[in-house]
């Protein structure tokens, strides 16, 4: 799959427009309008068929979306997620049996507040998107990043997966669905005509609740104070790398919360294979190797009740651009955190420019990296269904990758931190005999070093805060990579309250467990919250 | 105002650790560097008392520092190891001559036994002669394959229990990135292992005690310890793809210094989905060395050189292994394909 780029060679790369007389390789009739891979010249309608088929094939192959299920489409306004929206529309409007049968809704997360956009610019973008969304007739949710300051801490709690649907039950569910539709004589949900009115009303209702503009009876979704809080939070993050990572995490929390609140059990993300290749290499560079499979695979089950799927993963960005241009799929350009940043401003940015340049020299780069993602799965920690919910990272909610053996990169970094700082009761003479390694929780002196850094750097740093108790141990609750992000965050008291609250709860719980540890018979057993 | 060492808080700091950003005095840096290698050795249980350990010595900075640190630690912590230096002479005029001189000086300084095995004596070919036949594009394939086996053969001659090599954190991270770029899942899985058990006859277990040491810190260590090393890259330049991975890693390090060890952490926590096919290891039916094919890579390359068909070992020509083993001639068509040196 994803051969579009793979099989290009330099000659063809420059020749996406075929020679005048060329015929379509598929129907042998229509005159070709574009070449999508070596030698394959497609006419307009065959290209559309190929593109549309790929979407359905991806969903069909993976069989995770059930008929009638509510699916939230995460649309950023960019080409890939806009093409995804167009594919869903296309799929829902088809005749049975090729028809898609889920109930879509749309979410857009407005990140302008973290990217220094003016309010008017943000309103303009939102207005454009609204008109696109409204035209679909689907319910849509415009969420602002500022709303993280009103999120409940339950977003971060582990939720057990929906009652298991064994492999074979997919077909049964489809049959059942068709049966029901016949019985009550209703039209399939997702069918536009009857649903349209209510969807529109629904959307308008929600809009009045969420929109920032002064609507007659709606309350704005966030206060000016939240706007300032968000600015302060992002200003306190020292590096663009960490800012981008934090933004990604918060955005994910908002999407997750909206999905749960509105009853969506699937979220569709528009990552193309070009995007996923960058993400895969970038995440390796960020130390996110352990969750690579979930971060870049077709489906990401980490949230339990809400599953993220990536149906655009077989399309290259080039293909998407061609499709959007040819079939008038609207997209909106929205500047991001790193839009004007130089290549080496962050790990994510650097990775993107590296992959893009390498792709230009070696046209199989993207597809090779992408294929790597299909061969990986999570190795660490061993999947234990009985393990505590707190074994997931507080921020990204991936399985914690910090309980690894002593001979590991993670412990090596702890050792380096420890050996580079003054230890309380030690002289080199004493140290010679001391070969202890730090406690596996990773709470050795390195956490001290971090606090030194953040207090010294920020001025009004973490210690002066009264919202964050000085004893709060965030670190032990975070995965390897989120630790790096938090390490670059100088004012921990600017974190949204739901994160602090959940961290405190987990701290208390682990303290509790420590106190009663000698009475617990099975280390893995957790009475209350096993998921 | 002079910066104080963040470890002893007494002496003036002379360097900023590339790995952690801490400012340290010379003594505290030496201490931290050596101690970290010690922690690596202890936590990964790299050695057992009484073992004979061959240090793969190239005369470059990594193996020079490795030899020095291992000697220090062996005495400080009474590992009880018998250390010796193991060198390979690839037969590259102007490059190996100089670096071997360095190894010989090291041998005297550290008072460690030294064994040099040469390609010429093992294979009947020097790298210079190989390059003359195969050109510059694929010579690293030959060199890599031959060196690996040469170290093993040298180790067997000296009855060495383990070989340790100077691979540092940068090398490991770079290899992780390169294997991702090449989509080489089998290597991606193996490349972060700190040690390899003996995989069969003729293969000596290997380990990388400097796996978590930054290249820059190795240079700093050598600089302040005034260690003598030979600092030129191989004159037959390395492959382009590794070059890209290296440049990318350097950029990553510049953005976030921990990136090197972050990449290794990623590599250590990846694993391969079940059902992805991995090559089965067996033994070469000619020389007995470990191999997933009937003939090991080294024997195929050698056969290619000796028959004047250098491409034999470069592509995938497993079908021909039977003929080679039976010392049968190849067909004209087969010869034609393998002869053309278009690289
Ligand atoms: Zn056609
Ligand atoms: Zn995390
Ligand atoms: Zn000092
Ligand atoms: Zn052999």
TrEMBL record, chain A:
<comment type="function">
    <text>Plays a central role in 2-thiolation of mcm(5)S(2)U at tRNA wobble positions of tRNA(Lys), tRNA(Glu) and tRNA(Gln). May act by forming a heterodimer with CTU1/ATPBD3 that ligates sulfur from thiocarboxylated URM1 onto the uridine of tRNAs at wobble position.</text>
</comment>
<keyword id="KW-0963">Cytoplasm</keyword>
<dbReference type="GO" id="GO:0016783">
    <property type="term" value="F:sulfurtransferase activity"/>
</dbReference>
<dbReference type="GO" id="GO:0016779">
    <property type="term" value="F:nucleotidyltransferase activity"/>
</dbReference>
<dbReference type="GO" id="GO:0000049">
    <property type="term" value="F:tRNA binding"/>
</dbReference>
<dbReference type="InterPro" id="IPR019407">
    <property type="entry name" value="CTU2"/>
</dbReference>
<dbReference type="GO" id="GO:0002143">
    <property type="term" value="P:tRNA wobble position uridine thiolation"/>
</dbReference>
<protein>
    <recommendedName>
        <fullName>Cytoplasmic tRNA 2-thiolation protein 2</fullName>
    </recommendedName>
</protein>
<dbReference type="GO" id="GO:0032447">
    <property type="term" value="P:protein urmylation"/>
</dbReference>
<keyword id="KW-0819">tRNA processing</keyword>
<feature type="compositionally biased region" description="Polar residues">
    <location>
        <begin position="433"/>
        <end position="445"/>
    </location>
</feature>
<feature type="region of interest" description="Disordered">
    <location>
        <begin position="425"/>
        <end position="445"/>
    </location>
</feature>
<dbReference type="InterPro" id="IPR014729">
    <property type="entry name" value="Rossmann-like_a/b/a_fold"/>
</dbReference>
<comment type="similarity">
    <text>Belongs to the CTU2/NCS2 family.</text>
</comment>
<dbReference type="GO" id="GO:0005829">
    <property type="term" value="C:cytosol"/>
</dbReference>
<comment type="pathway">
    <text>tRNA modification; 5-methoxycarbonylmethyl-2-thiouridine-tRNA biosynthesis.</text>
</comment>
<dbReference type="Pfam" id="PF10288">
    <property type="entry name" value="CTU2"/>
</dbReference>
TrEMBL record, chain B:
<keyword id="KW-0820">tRNA-binding</keyword>
<keyword id="KW-0819">tRNA processing</keyword>
<dbReference type="GO" id="GO:0000049">
    <property type="term" value="F:tRNA binding"/>
</dbReference>
<feature type="binding site">
    <location>
        <position position="166"/>
    </location>
    <ligand>
        <name>ATP</name>
    </ligand>
</feature>
<protein>
    <recommendedName>
        <fullName>Cytoplasmic tRNA 2-thiolation protein 1</fullName>
        <ecNumber>2.7.7.-</ecNumber>
    </recommendedName>
</protein>
<dbReference type="GO" id="GO:0002143">
    <property type="term" value="P:tRNA wobble position uridine thiolation"/>
</dbReference>
<dbReference type="InterPro" id="IPR032442">
    <property type="entry name" value="CTU1_C"/>
</dbReference>
<dbReference type="Pfam" id="PF16503">
    <property type="entry name" value="zn-ribbon_14"/>
</dbReference>
<keyword id="KW-0547">Nucleotide-binding</keyword>
<keyword id="KW-0808">Transferase</keyword>
<feature type="binding site">
    <location>
        <position position="171"/>
    </location>
    <ligand>
        <name>ATP</name>
    </ligand>
</feature>
<dbReference type="GO" id="GO:0005739">
    <property type="term" value="C:mitochondrion"/>
</dbReference>
<dbReference type="InterPro" id="IPR035107">
    <property type="entry name" value="tRNA_thiolation_TtcA_Ctu1"/>
</dbReference>
<keyword id="KW-0694">RNA-binding</keyword>
<keyword id="KW-0963">Cytoplasm</keyword>
<dbReference type="InterPro" id="IPR000541">
    <property type="entry name" value="Ncs6/Tuc1/Ctu1"/>
</dbReference>
<comment type="function">
    <text>Plays a central role in 2-thiolation of mcm(5)S(2)U at tRNA wobble positions of tRNA(Lys), tRNA(Glu) and tRNA(Gln). Directly binds tRNAs and probably acts by catalyzing adenylation of tRNAs, an intermediate required for 2-thiolation. It is unclear whether it acts as a sulfurtransferase that transfers sulfur from thiocarboxylated URM1 onto the uridine of tRNAs at wobble position.</text>
</comment>
<dbReference type="InterPro" id="IPR011063">
    <property type="entry name" value="TilS/TtcA_N"/>
</dbReference>
<dbReference type="InterPro" id="IPR020554">
    <property type="entry name" value="UPF0021_CS"/>
</dbReference>
<dbReference type="GO" id="GO:0032447">
    <property type="term" value="P:protein urmylation"/>
</dbReference>
<comment type="similarity">
    <text>Belongs to the TtcA family. CTU1/NCS6/ATPBD3 subfamily.</text>
</comment>
<dbReference type="GO" id="GO:0002144">
    <property type="term" value="C:cytosolic tRNA wobble base thiouridylase complex"/>
</dbReference>
């Amino acid at each position: 799959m994803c051969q579009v780029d793979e099989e290009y060679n330099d000659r063809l790369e420059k020749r996406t427009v075929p020679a005048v007389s060329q015929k379509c390789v598929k129907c042998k009739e229509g005159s070709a309008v574009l070449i999508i891979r070596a030698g394959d010249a497609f006419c307009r309608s065959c290209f559309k068929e190929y593109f549309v088929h790929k979407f359905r094939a991806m969903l069909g192959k993976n069989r995770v979306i059930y008929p009638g299920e509510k699916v939230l489409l995460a649309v950023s306004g960019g080409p890939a997620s806009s093409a995804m929206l167009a594919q869903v529309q296309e799929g829902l409007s088809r005749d049975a049996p090729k028809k898609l049968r889920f109930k879509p809704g749309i979410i857009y997360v407005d990140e302008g507040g973290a990217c220094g956009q003016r309010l008017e610019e943000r309103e303009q973008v939102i207005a454009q998107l609204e008109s696109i969304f409204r035209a679909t007739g689907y319910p849509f949710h415009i969420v602002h990043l500022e709303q993280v300051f009103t999120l409940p801490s339950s977003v971060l709690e582990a939720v057990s997966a929906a009652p298991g649907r064994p492999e074979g039950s997919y077909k049964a569910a489809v049959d059942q669905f068709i049966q029901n539709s016949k019985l009550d004589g209703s039209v399939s949900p997702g069918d536009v005509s009857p649903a349209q009115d209510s969807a529109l009303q629904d959307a308008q209702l929600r809009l009045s609740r969420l929109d920032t503009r002064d609507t007659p009876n709606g309350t704005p979704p966030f206060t000016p104070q939240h706007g300032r809080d968000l600015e302060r939070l992002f200003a306190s993050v020292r590096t663009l790398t960490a800012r981008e990572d934090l933004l990604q995490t918060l955005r994910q929390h908002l999407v997750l919360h909206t999905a749960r609140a509105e009853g969506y059990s699937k979220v569709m993300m528009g990552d193309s294979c070009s995007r996923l290749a960058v993400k895969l290499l970038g995440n390796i560079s960020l130390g996110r190797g352990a969750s690579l499979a979930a971060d870049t695979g077709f489906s990401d089950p980490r949230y339990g009740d809400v599953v993220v799927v990536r149906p655009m993963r077989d399309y290259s960005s080039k293909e998407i651009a061609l499709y959007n241009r040819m079939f008038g799929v609207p997209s909106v350009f929205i500047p991001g955190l790193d839009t004007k940043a130089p290549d080496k401003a962050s790990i994510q940015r650097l990775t993107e420019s590296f992959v893009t340049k390498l792709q230009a020299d070696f046209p199989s780069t993207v597809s090779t990296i992408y294929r790597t993602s299909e061969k990986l799965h999570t190795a660490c920690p061993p999947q234990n269904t009985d393990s505590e919910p707190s074994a997931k990272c507080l921020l990204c909610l991936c399985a914690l990758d910090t309980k690894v053996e002593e001979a590991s990169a993670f412990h090596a970094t702890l050792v380096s931190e420890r050996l580079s700082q003054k230890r309380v009761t030690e002289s080199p003479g004493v140290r010679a005999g001391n070969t202890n390694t730090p406690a596996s929780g990773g709470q050795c002196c390195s956490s001290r070093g971090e606090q030194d850094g953040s207090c010294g750097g920020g001025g009004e740093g973490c210690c002066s805060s009264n919202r964050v108790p000085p004893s709060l141990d965030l670190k032990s609750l975070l995965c390897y990579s989120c630790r790096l992000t938090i390490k670059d965050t100088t004012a921990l008291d600017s974190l949204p309250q739901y994160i602090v609250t959940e961290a405190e709860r987990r701290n208390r719980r682990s303290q509790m467990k420590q106190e009663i540890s000698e009475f617990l018979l099975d280390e893995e057993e957790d009475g209350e919250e096993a998921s | 105002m002079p910066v104080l060492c963040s470890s002893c808080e007494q002496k003036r700091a002379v360097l900023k650790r590339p790995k952690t950003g801490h400012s340290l005095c010379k003594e505290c840096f030496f201490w931290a560097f050596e101690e970290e290698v010690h922690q690596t050795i202890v936590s990964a249980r790299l050695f057992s008392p009484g073992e004979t350990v061959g240090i793969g010595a190239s005369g470059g900075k990594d193996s020079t520092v490795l030899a020095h640190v291992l000697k220090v630690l062996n005495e400080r912590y009474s590992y009880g190891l018998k250390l010796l230096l193991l060198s390979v002479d690839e037969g590259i005029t102007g490059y190996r001559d100089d670096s071997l001189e360095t190894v010989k000086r090291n041998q005297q300084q550290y008072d460690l036994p030294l064994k040099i095995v040469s390609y010429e004596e093992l294979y009947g070919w020097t790298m210079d002669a190989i390059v003359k036949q195969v050109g510059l594009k694929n010579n690293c394939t030959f060199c890599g394959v031959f060196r690996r086996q040469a170290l093993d053969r040298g180790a067997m001659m000296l009855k060495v229990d383990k070989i340790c090599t100077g691979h540092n954190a940068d090398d490991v991270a770079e290899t992780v990135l390169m294997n991702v770029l090449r989509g080489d899942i089998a290597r991606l899985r193996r490349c972060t292992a700190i040690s390899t058990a003996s995989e069969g006859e003729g293969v000596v277990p290997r380990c990388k005690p400097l796996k978590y040491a930054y290249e820059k810190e190795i240079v700093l260590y050598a600089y302040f310890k005034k260690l003598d090393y030979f600092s030129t890259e191989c004159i037959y330049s390395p492959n382009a793809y590794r070059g890209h991975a290296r440049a990318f890693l350097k950029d990553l390090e510049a953005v976030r210094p921990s990136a090197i060890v972050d990449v290794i952490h990623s590599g250590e926590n990846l694993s391969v989905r079940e059902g992805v096919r991995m090559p089965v290891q067996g033994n070469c039916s000619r020389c007995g060395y470990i191999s997933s094919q009937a003939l090991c890579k080294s024997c195929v390359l050698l056969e290619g050189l000796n028959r004047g068909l250098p491409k034999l070992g470069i592509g995938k020509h497993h079908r021909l292994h039977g003929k080679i083993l039976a010392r049968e001639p190849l067909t004209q068509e087969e010869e034609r394909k393998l002869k053309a040196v278009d690289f």
